[in-house]
Design brief:
Layout (H helix, E strand, L loop, with lengths): L4 E4 L10 E4 L3 E5 L5 E8 L15 H5 L1 H9 L3 H11 L22 E5 L11 E5 L4 E6 L2 E8 L4 E7 L6 E5 L4 E4 L3 E7 L3 E11 L2 E10 L7 H15 L1 H17 L2 E3 L11 H6 L6 H17 L24 E2 L3 H4 L14 H22 L9 E2 L11 H4 L4 H5 L1 H10 L3 H20 L1 E2 L6 E2 L10 E2 L6 E2 L6 H20 L7 H8 L21 E2 L24 H16 L6 H13 L3 H15 L14 H14 E2 L5 E3 L10 E8 L3 E8 L2 E8 L5 E6 L2 E6 L1 E5 L2
Parallel strand pairs: 24-28
Antiparallel strand pairs: 1-6, 2-3, 3-4, 4-5, 5-10, 6-7, 7-8, 8-9, 9-14, 11-12, 12-13, 13-14, 15-25, 16-17, 18-19, 20-21, 20-22, 23-24, 25-26, 26-27, 27-30, 28-29
Helix pairs in contact: 2-3, 7-19, 9-13, 12-13, 13-14, 14-15, 17-18, 17-19, 18-19
The structure holds alpha-L-fucopyranose.
Alpha-L-fucopyranose binds next to loops.
Length: 715
Amino acid sequence: MKENRLWYDQPAKDWNEALPLGNGRLGMMVYGGVAEERVQLNEETFWSGWEDDGSSDDPETLAHLDEMRRLVFEGRYSEAQQLCNRYLVCRGPGHSDVQGAFGSYQTAGELFITFPHFKKKTAGYVRDLRLDEGRATVTLPGMTREFFVSFRYNTAVIRVTGCPEGTALRYERENCRVEDDGEEIRVAGNLPLAYALRIRRTLRDGVLTVFLTATTAYGTDRDPMAVCGETLDAAQEAGADALREETRAYFSDMLGRVSLTLPGSGGRAEVPTDRRLKEAAKDPGLAELYFNFGRYLLVGSSRGKLPANLQGIWCKDYEAPWSADYHININIQMNYWFAETCNLPELIDPFFGLIRLIAAHGEHTARVAYGCPGWVAHFTTNPWGYTALGQNPVYGAFPTAGAWCLRHIKERWLFSGDTAVLREFYPVISGASEFFLSYLVRDPRTGYLVTAPAGSPENSFLSPTDGSRVNVCAGPTMDISIIRELFEFHLAAAKALQKDDPLAPRLREALSQLPPLRIGKYGQIMEWPEEFEEAEPGHRHMSHLYGLYPAAEITASTPALFEAARKTIERRLAHGGGHTGWSRAWIVNFFARLADGNAAHENLVALFTKSTLNNLFDNHPPFQIDGNFGGTAGIAEMLLQSHDGVIDLLPALPEAWPEGSFEGLMARGGFRVSAAWRNGRVIRCRVEGKDDAPFRLRFNGQTTEAVGRFAYDAT
Ligand code: FUC
């Protein structure tokens, strides 16, 4: 990896310039101050709040469902909206109950290391993050600091050489009990979840060594303080050098599974990263660094009990933006878009754990709010599997959010070819299908089965009757695309498992009665079932293009829809769309699927220049990690696609990348793919799969059929 290092020639001005470290459970943000080091800490389960007692699900929703549907079907959208604002909502504060049941992800506090006699500024200062070592360093005359977080020992290590006598450590966090006996700082508190954090330090021969860990009582009845003590005992027994080597080997393995070399790779490595960012348009190597950084961030934020949240694992607040929760109307799904293609499937496991949680809790929501069997989740959730509607239908009336998460189970199966994941999640898949088979209702105007009343995530249209801004309708496009994919997946899973599923006939019948994707008066894919005037033509959500990406309903094999998808994106962009990091990242993936490499690259550069902070964190604003992950997925999608029955090399190669290579990207079917190109043409490629696995491979305008493996070398 040539582009494996972020570096800066001055300390972080603020948190958005600090450097992230993590092992998927513990996180650190390192500021690198000269006279005082500041390390902000996180542990993935540091959440206030508690399990919802089901009271957020309102029986009044069910009691008024028929009335809300009737108004929608009669086209009386304003009246329907008014009724939905009252009854298609959660009971009580729902997800906004940040100080109550829903809670918020929180900082685990901060560690300050104060060095006496140091001035604030010094020459010869370098601060860096070495991705394939999982290690940050700060070097200044006479002192070197290093920071890393061991996955195996679940311990963060800070080591300072050239550390003067009189160096002092202090820990700060609100509402906690802190004891410091000079060798160990012990912290305890309640969120109300009980938590503990322990920091042990030694200063010998000018070397300060700090071992730190934290945990909570989330999902266990073990005493957090005791768990931390055992963890540090093991870490200290192994020693800092062993943990550093284990961390290096871990990140080197995880990131080394895939490599990418783009033009200019390493060519500007001598320029500080914040300056490179400002000159992104003339630095193709930056895309390679960003790709490696994105993979680094997922390794650092998704290997414990909970998935990467809106901020991965890094959060400085007690009440984070959107609670740094798990929004499942694009955000958390986007966090995992590259996990399969970049061969990091084990990082998806915490997301699968969250899916189990929302499926369990969603049964209550399905029954109470809709009178349906099975399970349903709406636009967001938390570590306790919150599934109720939102306080407002504009974002909350999105009943297919949970089903959208199930496509990650489908992808796990498609990429691995292993039916075990189907067997494990079959009841969850069936539960989602059961809900929609019961919840879908026939639109008397069209005869189609639709979700009603429901909205297209967070977007609104102008009521045809009085021009007011409304969002509920009968069958928004995204709902129908997600349900179609779910039912087809359910049938495919039953076939793969050779199950004679009693739901199968109903699934086939329902599939034949879902409305098709439609093309509107602007030549665009219609977001709603009718030609409504858009309240916000540049909206950040492009939910009606779910079928283009991440699903594969709109492909080159459906040319009219393929062209309409392009018009849809162009219309969004023409009206200011793509203005949040994740929205721009989604557009990169859209253009990759449209095989338009230059447009994908143009939006990738816009992601860097308009929506990326100096430490390469994505900027919503504020910081939101989904853009990092969506942008990384977009780079992979520009180089390799396999969603349409063929392994497609360089499907969206921009002119800005005339030569380059990648190793180890994964294609559906479990194929490991490598390629090199020059002047935009493949000069070398290798595909490796299971011996008896047939596949089709497309490159340089030709399609080849092969079994098990394929190699080409025109060099
Ligand atoms: C959805 C998006 C917002 C934000 C939030 C966390 O509500 O519409 O832009 O990303 O998730």
